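Students often ask why inverse folding is considered easier than folding. One informal answer: many sequences map to the same fold, so there is more than one right answer. In these notes we will look at a single instance of the problem. The structure comes first.
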């Protein structure tokens, strides 16, 4: 594989050959389909296919012979027969510095919030980190990072920001949880708060009165403020505008229906206006919130969408060693951890919570698994939160009961299937669903027939 990547890099020379092209090439070498690549990377299938088509075209032009996904092995063998190449050791990349492989130091803290940049407890999920860091360097990009709560969105965002800083980008990081409720009283007030915070992050004095025009409206004034003030200030440096916890905006439909299409418009401006190419938009949100947006007004059917996958068994084993769980080493350790991985499906927060309790020495793995789905287990609060959401929307609860009733996949209504997947409760193959982990099957089986004490109301549905 390494020979292949080095050979293609030499063949293409000045043609694009970044992390996404490398990923498509390596997965094609392994005979993966574009759909499989999309599922593994979090990128859309059409985007992966477009990258692949351009890659085969560039290789065909450079080699003077037709290169396709199917004849890749044959073409490379012919190339090896004609070329003798020397391998050159590479220095550690900036990505390796941002995502270090550290040994455990210091006392373990209870799993809560983003994993610090220098923590040994951050687990890479290749090729996710490299793909995200590569995408943020693309002019005018719009990157969306989405996943259920506690899947590691903020931890990934912080590492992407650290990488962008290393590459000379200016950073504006806004977390919408910081906004007071009255900020959402009107679009004008919200956008003024938005611009003032962006200015402060760049160490600029806010100058809204010089750019704000009531007659032109808040959205146009906000655009002019960025275009004529903030983007001018950063000079030739890219400006990364990282928006975290954007689902807070979704709870205010009148704001969201103007703000989100505005972000989309800014992204589209980069296609025709060079100054907007300096802006790199990153939108991070949970998938437990839903808002009815027209697709042609939403920023979420453009740009690149990244979903965070669960940990593999090997990644769980690596994390266990960082926690100091000594018995987790070698192949026997992996076998011991397999029941835990099956129980919680590789969910990052649930894995960290289990390993934290195991490394404290107050609970062994057998006891943890036996009590996992019970009120006395370590996951009781997490499970109650999910139950509360489902009980507020009876149709979802019925759909979940269908899924856990059998061991096979169950065909669900498209909306119910999408919402349950957004909560992380099921895995989908089309509209066919199966429970995402044994923990949820056990817990919701235990809840069947119990009275609903949460009262009425409608669930905050899930983001399209």
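Output (designed amino acids):
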């Amino acid at each position: 594989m390494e020979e292949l990547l080095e050979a293609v890099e030499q063949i293409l020379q000045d043609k694009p050959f970044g992390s996404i092209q490398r990923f498509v090439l390596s997965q094609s070498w392994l005979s993966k389909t574009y759909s499989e690549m999309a599922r593994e990377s979090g990128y859309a299938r059409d985007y992966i296919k477009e990258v692949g088509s351009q890659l085969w075209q560039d290789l065909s032009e450079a080699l003077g012979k037709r290169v396709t996904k199917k004849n890749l092995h044959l073409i490379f063998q012919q190339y090896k027969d004609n070329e003798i190449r020397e391998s050159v050791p590479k220095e550690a990349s900036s990505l390796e510095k941002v995502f270090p492989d550290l040994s455990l130091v210091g006392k373990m803290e209870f799993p809560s919030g983003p994993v610090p940049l220098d923590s040994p407890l951050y687990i890479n999920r290749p090729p996710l980190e490299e793909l995200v860091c590569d995408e943020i360097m693309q002019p005018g990009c719009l990157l969306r990072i989405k996943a259920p709560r506690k899947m590691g969105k903020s931890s990934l965002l912080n590492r992407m920001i650290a990488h962008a800083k290393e590459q000379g980008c200016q950073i504006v990081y806004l977390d919408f949880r910081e906004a007071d409720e009255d900020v959402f009283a009107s679009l004008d007030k919200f956008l003024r708060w938005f611009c003032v915070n962006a200015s402060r992050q760049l160490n600029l004095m806010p100058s809204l009165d010089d750019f704000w025009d009531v007659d032109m409206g808040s959205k146009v004034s906000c655009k002019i403020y960025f275009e004529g003030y903030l983007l001018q200030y950063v000079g030739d440096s890219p400006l990364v505008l990282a928006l975290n916890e954007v689902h807070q905006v979704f709870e205010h439909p009148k704001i969201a229906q103007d703000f989100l299409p505005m972000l989309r418009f800014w992204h589209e401006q980069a296609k025709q206006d060079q100054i907007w190419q300096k802006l790199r938009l990153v939108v991070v949100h949970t998938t437990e919130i839903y808002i009815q947006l027209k697709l042609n007004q939403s920023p979420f059917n453009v740009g690149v969408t990244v979903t965070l996958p669960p940990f593999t068994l090997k990644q769980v084993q690596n994390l266990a060693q960082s926690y100091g769980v000594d018995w987790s080493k070698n192949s026997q350790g992996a076998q011991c951890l397999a029941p835990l991985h099956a129980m919680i499906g590789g969910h990052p927060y649930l894995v960290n919570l289990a390993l934290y309790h195991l490394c404290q020495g107050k609970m062994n793995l057998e006891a943890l698994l036996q009590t996992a789905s019970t009120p006395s287990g370590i996951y009781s609060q997490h499970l109650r939160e999910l139950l509360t959401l489902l009980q507020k929307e009876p149709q979802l609860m019925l759909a979940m009961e269908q899924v856990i009733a059998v061991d096979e996949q169950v065909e669900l209504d498209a909306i119910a299937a999408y919402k349950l997947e957004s909560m992380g409760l099921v895995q989908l193959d089309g509209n066919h669903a199966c429970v995402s982990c044994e923990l949820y099957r056990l817990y919701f089986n235990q809840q069947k027939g119990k009275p609903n004490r949460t009262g009425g109301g409608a669930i905050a549905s899930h983001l399209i």
